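User: Structure please.
Assistant: Input sequence and predicted structure:
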Amino acid sequence: MSDPRRVAVITGASRGLGAGLAEAFAARGMALGLCARTLPPVPDGATAVSRSLDVAEPGALASFATEVVDGLGPITLWINNAGVLAPIGPLAEADPDALGHLVAVNVTGVLWGSRVFARHVRSRPGEGVLVNITSGAATTPYEGWAAYSASKAAVDQATEVVALEEADHGLRAYAVAPGLVDTDMQALIRSTDRRDLPSVDRFRTAHTEGAMNTPSAVAEFIMDLVDDPAAAGAVRLRVPTPPVPGP
Protein backbone atom coordinates (compact mmCIF):
# COMPACT_ATOMS: atom_id res chain seq x y z
CA MET A 1 0.00 0.00 0.00
CA SER A 2 1.31 3.47 -0.83
CA ASP A 3 1.90 6.03 1.86
CA PRO A 4 -0.64 8.84 1.24
CA ARG A 5 1.77 11.32 2.83
CA ARG A 6 4.48 10.54 0.25
CA VAL A 7 3.80 11.26 -3.40
CA ALA A 8 6.78 11.76 -5.70
CA VAL A 9 6.70 13.26 -9.18
CA ILE A 10 9.60 12.38 -11.49
CA THR A 11 10.04 13.89 -14.94
CA GLY A 12 12.08 12.02 -17.51
CA ALA A 13 10.97 8.78 -15.87
CA SER A 14 10.87 6.50 -18.91
CA ARG A 15 14.50 5.32 -18.63
CA GLY A 16 17.87 5.92 -17.03
CA LEU A 17 18.05 7.69 -13.70
CA GLY A 18 14.38 8.64 -13.74
CA ALA A 19 13.20 5.05 -14.15
CA GLY A 20 15.68 3.92 -11.50
CA LEU A 21 14.41 6.51 -9.04
CA ALA A 22 10.84 5.38 -9.70
CA GLU A 23 11.78 1.78 -8.86
CA ALA A 24 13.56 2.84 -5.67
CA PHE A 25 10.74 5.08 -4.46
CA ALA A 26 8.12 2.45 -5.28
CA ALA A 27 10.05 -0.01 -3.12
CA ARG A 28 9.68 2.47 -0.26
CA GLY A 29 5.90 2.49 -0.73
CA MET A 30 5.66 5.92 -2.32
CA ALA A 31 2.95 6.78 -4.82
CA LEU A 32 4.35 8.06 -8.09
CA GLY A 33 3.61 10.65 -10.75
CA LEU A 34 5.74 9.68 -13.74
CA CYS A 35 6.11 11.58 -16.99
CA ALA A 36 8.36 11.67 -20.04
CA ARG A 37 8.04 12.03 -23.80
CA THR A 38 7.87 8.23 -23.93
CA LEU A 39 5.24 6.80 -21.59
CA PRO A 40 7.12 5.73 -18.41
CA PRO A 41 6.72 2.17 -17.15
CA VAL A 42 5.08 1.77 -13.76
CA PRO A 43 7.14 -0.28 -11.29
CA ASP A 44 5.51 -3.54 -10.22
CA GLY A 45 3.03 -3.02 -7.40
CA ALA A 46 3.30 0.78 -7.46
CA THR A 47 0.39 3.18 -7.27
CA ALA A 48 1.10 5.65 -10.04
CA VAL A 49 -0.08 8.13 -12.62
CA SER A 50 2.03 7.77 -15.77
CA ARG A 51 1.75 10.11 -18.75
CA SER A 52 3.56 11.01 -21.94
CA LEU A 53 4.22 14.76 -22.24
CA ASP A 54 6.75 17.41 -23.24
CA VAL A 55 8.14 19.19 -20.17
CA ALA A 56 8.91 22.27 -22.29
CA GLU A 57 5.29 22.70 -23.40
CA PRO A 58 3.53 25.47 -21.45
CA GLY A 59 0.78 24.01 -19.30
CA ALA A 60 1.73 20.35 -19.73
CA LEU A 61 3.27 19.93 -16.27
CA ALA A 62 0.54 22.01 -14.62
CA SER A 63 -2.13 19.71 -16.04
CA PHE A 64 -0.12 16.67 -15.04
CA ALA A 65 0.31 17.93 -11.47
CA THR A 66 -3.44 18.45 -11.17
CA GLU A 67 -4.03 14.89 -12.33
CA VAL A 68 -1.50 13.53 -9.85
CA VAL A 69 -3.00 15.46 -6.95
CA ASP A 70 -6.54 14.43 -7.88
CA GLY A 71 -5.52 10.78 -8.14
CA LEU A 72 -2.89 10.38 -5.45
CA GLY A 73 -3.01 13.35 -3.09
CA PRO A 74 -0.67 16.24 -2.29
CA ILE A 75 2.81 15.99 -3.81
CA THR A 76 5.64 15.64 -1.30
CA LEU A 77 8.62 15.46 -3.65
CA TRP A 78 9.08 16.83 -7.17
CA ILE A 79 12.16 15.80 -9.18
CA ASN A 80 12.94 17.66 -12.40
CA ASN A 81 15.06 14.94 -13.98
CA ALA A 82 14.22 15.23 -17.69
CA GLY A 83 17.26 16.30 -19.64
CA VAL A 84 19.19 15.86 -22.88
CA LEU A 85 22.92 15.86 -23.59
CA ALA A 86 23.15 16.55 -27.32
CA PRO A 87 24.61 18.39 -29.11
CA ILE A 88 28.09 17.22 -28.11
CA GLY A 89 31.06 18.88 -29.78
CA PRO A 90 32.40 22.39 -30.42
CA LEU A 91 29.69 25.01 -30.02
CA ALA A 92 30.75 26.59 -33.32
CA GLU A 93 29.64 23.40 -35.07
CA ALA A 94 26.42 22.77 -33.12
CA ASP A 95 23.11 22.35 -34.91
CA PRO A 96 20.82 25.29 -34.03
CA ASP A 97 17.74 23.10 -33.68
CA ALA A 98 19.57 20.75 -31.31
CA LEU A 99 20.70 23.72 -29.22
CA GLY A 100 17.16 25.02 -29.00
CA HIS A 101 15.83 21.62 -27.99
CA LEU A 102 18.45 21.25 -25.25
CA VAL A 103 17.60 24.63 -23.75
CA ALA A 104 13.87 23.91 -23.98
CA VAL A 105 14.18 20.64 -22.05
CA ASN A 106 17.09 21.30 -19.67
CA VAL A 107 16.25 24.88 -18.72
CA THR A 108 12.68 25.76 -19.68
CA GLY A 109 11.38 22.36 -18.58
CA VAL A 110 13.01 22.75 -15.16
CA LEU A 111 11.62 26.27 -14.80
CA TRP A 112 8.10 25.07 -15.66
CA GLY A 113 8.34 22.16 -13.23
CA SER A 114 9.73 24.32 -10.44
CA ARG A 115 6.99 26.89 -10.98
CA VAL A 116 4.24 24.27 -10.94
CA PHE A 117 5.50 22.64 -7.75
CA ALA A 118 6.07 25.96 -5.98
CA ARG A 119 2.48 26.96 -6.71
CA HIS A 120 1.26 23.57 -5.48
CA VAL A 121 3.14 23.85 -2.17
CA ARG A 122 1.79 27.37 -1.68
CA SER A 123 -1.74 26.05 -2.18
CA ARG A 124 -1.75 23.50 0.64
CA PRO A 125 -0.38 23.05 4.16
CA GLY A 126 2.89 21.30 4.84
CA GLU A 127 6.33 21.24 3.29
CA GLY A 128 7.50 20.12 -0.12
CA VAL A 129 10.90 19.19 -1.48
CA LEU A 130 12.02 20.19 -4.97
CA VAL A 131 15.03 18.42 -6.50
CA ASN A 132 16.44 19.67 -9.77
CA ILE A 133 18.94 17.23 -11.26
CA THR A 134 22.12 19.05 -12.19
CA SER A 135 25.67 18.02 -13.06
CA GLY A 136 29.28 18.62 -12.19
CA ALA A 137 29.47 20.13 -15.68
CA ALA A 138 27.68 23.16 -14.25
CA THR A 139 30.92 24.23 -12.58
CA THR A 140 33.63 22.23 -14.39
CA PRO A 141 34.17 23.15 -18.06
CA TYR A 142 34.37 20.24 -20.49
CA GLU A 143 35.24 20.87 -24.13
CA GLY A 144 32.30 19.77 -26.23
CA TRP A 145 29.66 20.45 -23.59
CA ALA A 146 29.10 24.20 -23.86
CA ALA A 147 25.33 23.93 -24.17
CA TYR A 148 24.88 21.17 -21.62
CA SER A 149 27.18 22.86 -19.10
CA ALA A 150 25.40 26.20 -19.55
CA SER A 151 22.02 24.56 -19.07
CA LYS A 152 23.08 22.93 -15.80
CA ALA A 153 24.64 26.17 -14.54
CA ALA A 154 21.26 27.77 -15.20
CA VAL A 155 19.55 24.99 -13.23
CA ASP A 156 21.89 25.55 -10.29
CA GLN A 157 21.24 29.28 -10.13
CA ALA A 158 17.49 28.97 -10.68
CA THR A 159 17.31 26.48 -7.82
CA GLU A 160 19.21 28.86 -5.53
CA VAL A 161 16.70 31.60 -6.31
CA VAL A 162 13.66 29.35 -5.86
CA ALA A 163 15.05 28.21 -2.49
CA LEU A 164 15.12 31.84 -1.36
CA GLU A 165 11.75 32.78 -2.82
CA GLU A 166 9.85 29.80 -1.45
CA ALA A 167 11.46 29.27 1.97
CA ASP A 168 8.62 31.03 3.77
CA HIS A 169 6.08 28.93 1.87
CA GLY A 170 7.45 25.59 3.06
CA LEU A 171 9.34 24.56 -0.07
CA ARG A 172 12.93 23.31 0.21
CA ALA A 173 14.79 23.34 -3.10
CA TYR A 174 18.00 21.49 -3.99
CA ALA A 175 20.15 21.17 -7.10
CA VAL A 176 21.48 17.62 -6.86
CA ALA A 177 24.35 16.36 -9.03
CA PRO A 178 24.05 12.56 -9.02
CA GLY A 179 27.61 11.95 -10.15
CA LEU A 180 28.32 9.31 -12.80
CA VAL A 181 25.34 6.96 -12.96
CA ASP A 182 25.54 4.00 -15.34
CA THR A 183 22.66 4.88 -17.66
CA ASP A 184 22.08 5.22 -21.41
CA MET A 185 23.29 8.82 -21.18
CA GLN A 186 26.61 7.67 -19.77
CA ALA A 187 26.87 5.05 -22.50
CA LEU A 188 26.37 7.83 -25.06
CA ILE A 189 29.14 9.84 -23.40
CA ARG A 190 31.54 6.89 -23.48
CA SER A 191 30.84 6.31 -27.18
CA THR A 192 31.62 9.92 -28.12
CA ASP A 193 34.68 10.59 -30.27
CA ARG A 194 37.59 12.36 -28.55
CA ARG A 195 37.39 15.11 -31.14
CA ASP A 196 33.97 16.07 -29.81
CA LEU A 197 34.66 15.32 -26.14
CA PRO A 198 38.40 15.38 -25.34
CA SER A 199 37.78 14.24 -21.74
CA VAL A 200 35.91 11.09 -22.79
CA ASP A 201 38.58 8.79 -21.30
CA ARG A 202 37.66 10.01 -17.81
CA PHE A 203 34.18 8.58 -18.22
CA ARG A 204 35.40 5.37 -19.82
CA THR A 205 37.85 4.79 -16.98
CA ALA A 206 35.20 5.41 -14.32
CA HIS A 207 33.00 2.79 -15.96
CA THR A 208 35.82 0.27 -16.25
CA GLU A 209 36.82 0.75 -12.61
CA GLY A 210 33.25 0.64 -11.32
CA ALA A 211 33.47 4.16 -9.87
CA MET A 212 29.85 4.94 -10.64
CA ASN A 213 26.71 5.60 -8.65
CA THR A 214 23.45 3.67 -8.90
CA PRO A 215 19.91 5.06 -9.11
CA SER A 216 19.16 3.45 -5.74
CA ALA A 217 22.07 5.33 -4.11
CA VAL A 218 20.81 8.59 -5.60
CA ALA A 219 17.31 7.79 -4.35
CA GLU A 220 18.60 7.21 -0.81
CA PHE A 221 20.44 10.52 -0.94
CA ILE A 222 17.28 12.33 -2.02
CA MET A 223 15.14 10.63 0.62
CA ASP A 224 17.58 11.78 3.29
CA LEU A 225 16.83 15.34 2.14
CA VAL A 226 13.10 14.68 2.40
CA ASP A 227 13.28 13.05 5.83
CA ASP A 228 15.77 15.42 7.47
CA PRO A 229 15.47 19.15 6.68
CA ALA A 230 18.80 19.77 8.42
CA ALA A 231 20.69 17.14 6.42
CA ALA A 232 21.73 19.32 3.49
CA GLY A 233 23.07 22.64 4.77
CA ALA A 234 23.28 23.91 1.18
CA VAL A 235 21.22 24.14 -2.00
CA ARG A 236 23.80 22.73 -4.42
CA LEU A 237 24.65 19.14 -3.52
CA ARG A 238 26.50 16.19 -5.02
CA VAL A 239 25.84 12.53 -4.35
CA PRO A 240 29.12 11.00 -3.07
CA THR A 241 30.93 8.74 -5.51
CA PRO A 242 31.37 5.20 -4.16
CA PRO A 243 34.94 3.98 -3.59
CA VAL A 244 36.53 2.05 -6.43
CA PRO A 245 36.19 -1.70 -5.72
CA GLY A 246 39.39 -3.39 -4.66
CA PRO A 247 41.10 -6.21 -6.56
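The helical segments are 16-27, 60-72, 96-123, 146-166, 184-190, 200-209, 215-227.
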